[in-house]
Amino acid sequence: MGDVSGNRGASGINLGFGFNLIGLLLVVVILGISAAVMVSSFGGSTPVKTSGTTPGTTPGATTETTPGTATGAAPETTAGNIGAIAKQSAVVACESDATEVETAIQEYSAVNGVASSVVTPTLLTSGPSPDLVSFPSSPDYTISIASGVVMIAAPTTSAPVPYGTSGACAKAGS
Fold this sequence. Notes:
36% helix; 11% strand; elongated
C-alpha cells in the first residue's frame, strides 16, 4: 500500500510526523555549529610563550603571558581566579539573601497587616507557613533586621548598613 499520510520526505524515507532526513540533517548541523561557537566563546585562554627581554629578567628568558595582557605582566594563577570567583559568589549571595529577606518582610507585613518595623527574623521563620524556611547566614556577611530595615554587615566584622546602600555587599567574601 502507498503512503497515505503524505509524510514522505525529500529523501524518500518516511519518518512520520512530517520529519525527513534533510530536516534532521539540518538540525544536527545547526546544533554542531552552535556547540562549536559555545566552546570557542567559553573556552579558557591558553598561556602563550613569549621571548624577549623584560627589565629585571635574564636576556633570552621565556615568560608566560596570557593573550590580551601586557608582556611581562604577572601570569594569572588558578588560585587567584578561584579566589575572585569565590568573592564574587559571596557578593551575589549576599545581594540575593538580602533581597529575599526584604521581600519576606514586605510579604509578612501585607499578609498580617502589621508595620514592617515589628517584623523580626523569628516571625519570618516560624508559624504554620513561614515566609522563610531559615534566616540566611554566611561566614562572609551578616544579615539582620532593624526596625523593618534589612541591614548588611559585609564582612561580618564591619558595622551594618541598610540594604540598598551603595556597595552594602561589595566586601562580602573579603
